[in-house]
Write a structure and sequence with these properties.
The complex is a heterodimer of chains A (66) and B (154). Chain A is mainly alpha-helical and 66 residues long. In chain A, 58% of the residues lie in helices and 6% in strands. Chain A is built from 5 helices and 2 strands; from the N terminus they run E-H-H-H-H-H-E. With 154 residues, chain B is mainly α. Chain B has 6 helices and 2 strands. In chain B, strands 1-2 form a two-stranded antiparallel sheet. The longest helix of chain B is centred in the middle third of the chain and has 28 residues. Chain B is globular, with a radius of gyration of 21 Å. Classes of the chains: A mainly alpha (66), B mainly alpha (154).
């Protein structure tokens, strides 16, 4: 699964740590999600979508093999 | 996602204190034949010669040490991290799978390396293989996670 959290963060102008605080996870977790090492739960994906004020599909995207 | 089996993170410190304390007790019990005086089951045979139950006097110090070490380890294993999110939960599960696998590998290796009474002795220590391997693997994963470099530009 692909994501464009880094881009969304840049648009919103927030750091990983700030995003982590907003959705109550650790900064490391945000880092692993951004780098594609970890696929977040639906709850976390929806929380991120709420922070960025975008639908989930605009942040996360299926890729070949999923 | 709530994991109701986990206890608050402050129990990790208490768990370590209990674990180390009882390790010392176990060590002295094993090497110096240390026994807590009076902490034992008394033989009923001494009280009544005709009693059908005949077990010998038995000191419970080593049982007590095993109990303490096990409870201490379980407390450490089941306590939450300070920041406990879903990625930590994934790491915890992965470490547990890894620990179960490794503990069986160790068990099979022991199976072919030790025979007779020493095999049984090592099986006794083997009751702590899963929690110990789990703690080593889980803490290693956490350490690696903390050291990871952040690509954090605004």
């Amino acid at each position: 699964m692909k994501n464009n959290i880094r881009v969304q963060r840049a648009i919103k102008n927030i750091t990983q740590a700030e995003l982590a605080d907003l959705i109550q996870v650790s900064r490391q977790t945000i880092n692993t999600i951004e780098s594609g090492k970890y696929v977040p739960s639906t709850v976390l994906a929806l929380k991120m979508a709420r922070v960025f004020d975008k639908p989930v599909e605009e942040i996360f995207e299926l890729e070949g093999g999923d | 996602m709530k994991n109701s089996l986990l206890i608050p993170s402050k129990y990790k410190v208490i768990g370590w204190i209990i674990f180390l304390g009882f390790c010392i007790l176990g060590f002295f019990c094993l090497t110096k034949e240390f026994r807590i005086p009076g902490f034992q089951i008394y033989s009923l045979k001494n009280i009544n010669e005709n009693s059908p139950i005949t077990f010998a006097d038995y000191n419970l110090t080593n049982e007590f040490a095993i109990l303490g070490i096990t409870i201490g380890l379980l407390m450490i294993v089941f306590s939450k991290e300070r920041i406990d999110d879903e990625y930590i939960a994934v790491l915890r599960l992965k470490s547990l799978q890894w620990a179960v696998l490794v503990s069986y590998v160790i068990l099979l290796a022991i199976n072919f390396c030790f025979y007779g009474l020493s095999f049984l002795m090592i099986l006794v220590y083997n009751i702590w293989t899963i929690p110990i391997v789990f703690l080593a693997k889980f803490n290693y994963s956490l350490q690696r996670l903390r050291k990871e470099r952040f690509s954090d530009e605004k």
